[in-house]
Amino acid sequence: MHWMDLYHRLLEIYGPRGWWPLPSRAGRDGRDERGYLPGGGPPSDRAGIFEISVGAVLTQGISWTNAERALLRLLENDFLDPRRIADCPPETLASLVRPAGYYNVKARKLIELSGFFLGLRPDGPGFRAPGRTDLLRVWGIGPETADCILTYAFGIPSFVIDEYTRRIFGRTGLADPKEPYEKLRTAVERGIPDSPAVYAEYHALIVEHGKLRCRTRPDCRPCPLLSCCEYGLSSLSYETARTKHDTSSLV
DNA sequence: CGCCAGGCAACAC
DNA sequence: GTGTTGCATGGC
Q1: pLDDT reported for residue A16
Q2: Which of A97, A143, A174, A222 is the most interior residue, by most CB within 10 Å?
Q3: What residue ranges of chain A have pLDDT lower than 70?
Q4: A101/A123 Cα distance (integer angstroms)
Q5: If DSSP states are collapsed to H, E and C, what string results for A183-246?
């Protein structure tokens, strides 16, 4: 199997995932109730770019639902802004992002991230995009978070390697999951088209499949009838209910 | 109750 | 460079 074979298979099964969610715009601008924009692209405005970057930090080591809760608390308290976060006492910030776990660490990371954004050069409605090494120099931004920010916030393709990626590429035999981050990333990037849309969609599909089926304890049970079974569709989670094809014979 | 969830820095060797 | 540990909440 080739890298793109898995991509096309996942796309058939789950359909376009809609880049990275912007909970602040859920239900608006063509976004769904969680803030995803299927078939969309990166935000062109500074607020959207910053919100995705904050989300990438908040979701470190934690489920998106918990990160989303913290993100909404920042939003409700008018703290989804680099200036406001940079000037906020760490204890206040920590109490706001409490649902995301590791809240003291993440408060500091958000302050560092905000300082970095305050130094970015505005460029039209957005920013001049930072380099990958610039992002990696920020305390709290490691390789995965940097690649999420580059790909999903700025639309600059840099393939995201996370635990789901390692697991799914490992189980399908596409890669050795124990390889170091940079080796895996360059291997994937050599095998797929150099397109922001493909990078963003591929990783989003990997996350979707990782959450729904290819978990630590995988659910490899195929259900060929899912697409035409009303009981199955009505009783399953929203992600699965949106599936338009059966999920058999994958991984 | 135990396990897991879209990591990272700091440190040991 | 590889391996381990602390950080901490919420869902199942």
Answers
A1: 92
A2: A97
A3: 223-251
A4: 34
A5: HHHHHHHHHCCCCHHHHHHHHHHHHHHHHHCCCCCCCCCCCCCHHHCHHHHHHCCHHHHCCCCC
Please tell me whether any atom of strand B lies within 7 Å of the Cβ of A216: yes
pLDDT computed for residue A63 by the predictor? 94
What whole-number distance in Å separates Cα of residue A56 and Cα of residue A152?
Answer: 9
Positions on chain B within 7 A of a protein C-beta: 3-10
The answer to whether the C-beta of A97 is closer than 7 A to strand B is no
Task: Tell me how long chain A is.
Answer: 251
pLDDT of residue A112: 98
CA of A102 to C1' of C5 (A): 14
Q: How far is the CA of A199 from the C1' of B10 (A)?
A: 32
| A102 CB contact with strand B at below 7 Å | yes
Spatial distance from the CA of A166 to the C1' of B7 (Å):
14
Domains and their CATH numbers in chain A:
3-212 (1.10.340.30)
Tell me the sheet residues that pair with A127: A122
Whole-number distance in Å between A52 CA and B5 C1': 19
The answer to whether the beta carbon of residue A182 comes closer than 7 angstroms to any atom of strand B is no
pLDDT digits (tens, 9 = 90+) for A3-17: 999 999 999 888 999
User: In whole angstroms, what separates CA A170 from the centre of its chain?
Assistant: 20
Confidence at residue A25, expressed as pLDDT on a 0 to 100 scale = 97
Query: Backbone phi, then psi, for A78, in 5-degree steps?
Result: 60, 35
Ramachandran area for residue A124 (φ above 0: left; ψ -120 to 50: alpha; else beta)? left
